[in-house]
Amino acid sequence: MALGLQLWRQVLAGLLLCVCVGRWAEAGKVLVVPMEGSHWLSMREAVQELHARGHQAVVLSPEVNVHIKAEDFFTMKTYAIPYTQDDFNYFLMGSFNMFFERVHFLTLFWKTMTATKNLSLAFERSCEALLYNKDLIRDLNASSFDVVLTDPVYPCGAVLAKYLSIPAVFFLRFLPCDLDVEGTACPNPFSYVPKLLTRNSDHMTFFQRVKNMLYPPSLKYLCHFSFTPYARMASELLQRDVSLGEIFGSASVWLFRGDFVMDYPRPIMPNMVFIGGFNCGNKKPLSQEFEAYVNASGEHGIVIFSLGSMVSEIPEQKAMEIADALGKIPQTVLWRYTGTPPPNLAKNTKLVKWLPQNDLLGHPKTRAFITHSGSHGVYEGICNGVPMVMMPLFGDQMDNAKRMETRGAGITLNVLEMSSGDLENALKAVINEKSYKENIMRLSRLHKDRPIEPLDLAVFWVEFVMRHKGASHLRPAAHDLTWYQYHSLDVIGFLLAVTLTVIFITFKACAFTFRKCFGKKERVKKSHKSKTH
Ligand SMILES: *[C@@H]1O[C@H](CO)[C@@H](O)[C@H](O)[C@H]1NC(C)=O
Ligand SMILES: *[C@@H]1O[C@H](CO)[C@@H](O)[C@H](O)[C@H]1NC(C)=O
Ligand SMILES: *[C@@H]1O[C@H](CO)[C@@H](O)[C@H](O)[C@H]1NC(C)=O
């Protein structure tokens, strides 16, 4: 009896040990190197979920930043950079006003160029301050992280992962200049995969296909000064030649914030995972303030208006035009706006400094969503089935708007050229014409019909990479080929040479035989002829 009890105790102790060790062994250490701005607000949700699953996250950020603030679900590690908060705000946020100014195309181009240069330089300095900070690097190296989670739009995290030999998971919407295509070694035919920023759909006319082919090379210059500094840093640190392709090709898994309800079907690779809409799941009841607005809106319901986390003020003239249009619809409008209220603001329009966008879009009384069509917002519109009026400003926003428009789920307006009447008509159309609501509901049903929630999928792949120390079995061998091997130009050249040689030899042989057979006769004939003369 006593023996039995003792045995039982041992089994129980063993079981407990198993459980504890099991749990302890599963918890991993994630080093997060985020991209500043709205990109961080996306990644933040993934970090929060990783924390909820028992993992430990350390977020690396420069001391001076805009959106990356300390929170209780991660440890923040900061490092000094040679910029003041004002510089940084100016570089990051100062340029947004230019998207509302009506200027000559070349002026806009030049301004975009210098703003991008300034911003790129700020990020480059920030990355240098991180990578050449010996104490910080020693500290990070000693912490033995299991994975680096980073947005490769700021390639510093990718370089850091390579330097510390930690597997990396990329978390992104896209990389410009086809750097993501290069990094994933994914086939990407010009003929039906629309290139970024072209505003093409997947069905292109001949000239759209010409544009599709010419666009990436023309952007190369911008990418050159934005991205090559990271190849230089990687080469210096690793003391060998490291190309950008190698830096981007080093990711174990790519988590793309897209899916094939918003984006067009195209080829993918085994380590490309699509997590568009991962930000929709986390829904909370409305606060008193917002519930009161919704309740007071009556049968007409509400319209949500936000231009994203980066643009919360616009020039007064534009703001007045917009306010005028908003006053002409019967719905209550909740507008995220921090500037001085336009003097002509109508009674139905409430300005708020911040709004719980996803929760409000999920309310059955929400009729329409006015958005800058950043991917985050567009997915919240899709998940909640709210038709959109889109005012794209920069980056992939024009492309996102195009995708929604071709699906009949919204109307795109040019923020520079639109009049107050255009906005009013667009709003009335998406609210009153049934097709917009039907189309967005169809997209919503398609988007939600899936075996696993996108946030769970994202966390699964981060854990997968931690468990297996990378995912080298998913890495296509294309990365190890030269460009002429990849396109089989050497093989084609070889086969061509063989074919030509065979044709040449055959021809020569024929010519020789021909001469042997007919040459004699001719000579015979000739000699015969000459004799008869
Ligand atoms: C770029 O930076 C320079 C110097 O810091 C500044 O004078 C210029 O106005 C900036 N340009 C833009 C478009 O931000
Ligand atoms: C990290 O630590 C390992 C082992 O101590 C060492 O071999 C390696 O050089 C270190 N890496 C860096 C970047 O300091
Ligand atoms: C809004 O209306 C609902 C249902 O009528 C009610 O339960 C809730 O208390 C109201 N909320 C506010 C803040 O008035």
UniProtKB/TrEMBL annotation:
Determine if Glycoprotein is one of this entry's keywords.
Answer: yes
Q: Which UniProt keywords apply?
A: Endoplasmic reticulum, Glycoprotein, Glycosyltransferase, Membrane, Signal, Transferase, Transmembrane, Transmembrane helix
Q: Name one GO molecular function term.
A: glucuronosyltransferase activity
UniProt-listed InterPro entries: UDP-glycosyltransferase (IPR050271), UDP_glucos_trans (IPR002213), UDP_glycos_trans_CS (IPR035595)
Tell me if Membrane is a UniProt keyword of this record: yes
Topology relative to the lipid bilayer, per the entry, is: Single-pass membrane protein
Query: Which residue spans traverse the membrane?
Result: 491-514
EC main class here is transferase
Q: Tell where it localizes.
A: Endoplasmic reticulum membrane; Membrane
Top-level taxon of the source organism: Eukaryota
Extract the Pfam families matched here. UDPGT
Q: Which reaction does it catalyse?
A: glucuronate acceptor + UDP-alpha-D-glucuronate = acceptor beta-D-glucuronoside + UDP + H(+)
Cellular component GO terms, alphabetical = endoplasmic reticulum membrane
According to its UniProt record, the EC number is 2.4.1.17
The signal peptide here is: 1-27
| Record family assignment | Belongs to the UDP-glycosyltransferase family.
Query: PANTHER family attached here?
Result: EG:EG0003.4 PROTEIN-RELATED, UDP GLUCURONOSYLTRANSFERASE FAMILY 1 MEMBER A1
Q: What is this protein called?
A: UDP-glucuronosyltransferase
Taxonomic lineage per UniProt?
Eukaryota, Metazoa, Chordata, Craniata, Vertebrata
Gene encoding this polypeptide?
UGT1A4
